[in-house]
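Journal club prep, shared notes

We agreed each person brings one worked example of a sequence with its structure written out as tokens. Mine is EGF-like domain-containing protein. I'm keeping it raw so we can talk through how to read the token line rather than staring at a rendered picture. Sequence first:
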Amino acid sequence: MLILFFSCNQEEVIQLEEAKDITIEEVKEAFNARKKQNANARTNGSDTSIDILWDLAIYKELNVGDVLFFPTKSIGGEEGKRYVSSGEGTKRFPVDYTSFGRAYKDEKDEVVLEYVMPVPTENTAEFTGYFLVSDWGEEVKQILVYENGNLIGQTNPQSQNEISNRSGGNCSIIDHWWCVQTSVGDRIVATRCTYDGSTMVCEPDELAPPDPSNPGGGGGGSANPSGPNGLCAHPFIEGMWVDCDAVICSENYVADENGECVPDCGENMVLNSEGNCVCKQGFVSDGEGGCTAITTGLEDISNCNELSTRDNFKLKNVVDNYLTKCTNLQIFEYVVGEEKKFCFKIDGTQDVPGGYNYSTSDITFKSSELINETTFGEEFFHGYQDLFYGGLNQYSNVGRSNIEFEAKLYHDLTHGGLCCLAFEEPGTAVFTEYLLWLSEVSNDFTQLPNWSEISDKYFYFMKQFINEKPIYNYPIDYQLIPNAVLNLNDC
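Then the structure, token by token:
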């Protein structure tokens, strides 16, 4: 009989050279006799598919005397290995790694062999699942049920089919009642009780092994080699070492750079921070659930082009250069992923270098000379904002200055101090103050800041921006923070 009892008491590991109640030679003899018996009976029990690693066996002194614990190994190579899934179902651990065997002598001084296989059922901090205890044959002697490291039920399958009944094995259920008595004087005239739930209590038997050394993750523990010859500490038996290099991911999962099993998103896709499969950098949606490489750039975002051949060639080179910057590529992929396209035009009547019309999705340049990365980048960012915020038409008045300042802030943060669009007169006090602020919040222009790093001065500089550029003198929306910029990741 096996009970795993999780407590804070540490069991003493007894050295092999001391005299023992049971010897390895006795266990070997019993094991080989059981294997021969099962072979003659043509059974296919545990002892015919796995073997014992005798050199890694350890003794522990328990209430029944000396108990020999030993790791196991599959017979027949990798193709013959058996696996159990972790609680979350993403990893598969070889039975060799999680299971173990043990031997002790009963009251009749006979050797008792037991094989224990943990089967996680849920991913919890401590082990949740059940232990199948067999006699190294086909016979399952006992099932032990654990929830987050606590024994909650046990049964002998030979005598009952339930995991636990109201009084079975070493477990019992205590019913809780809440009672109210009605008295007249000193006499109780009525008692009314209401059922208030039950608690299962399981007591460990005399054969409880020590605490598991690292039972986390719903079973299996850590598979990082830390012991002799690249071995790992057994996840349940403290002081025992096992081969751990065969932990693999379940079907439809792959290992990430941290060795964790994550969903296999497929070719040219990665898992984002929200657990969704998205196109990896340099790829965009093909419209059919897959991803295709960005090849032409301009053609991916253009549905109308009224530029001359020369200007179109110039814009194509501008877009190609724009896509060499990681954060720009994120913006581009977002826009293409939403299947948004633009019409590119020259409009000599406008007063600014570039423009974006959210009603028509036109991106215009004042002249051919202004077809450059700065002008394109700002107007393309406005197209990105149009998608990100669910339409710029809602900011035609209140919040319009927010939209304009955010686009210029993104440019100024990502051009290594070669700026600025928000303030264009170097040497002025506000220009210098703004430039120093950008350098501080971006770690000298090496990363994009988060909101907590810019919130104290963001609206201050927006007001200064409006003072410097009265063309953008619209009411500020103090609830509209620059989430289109904050949504981008450092590369």
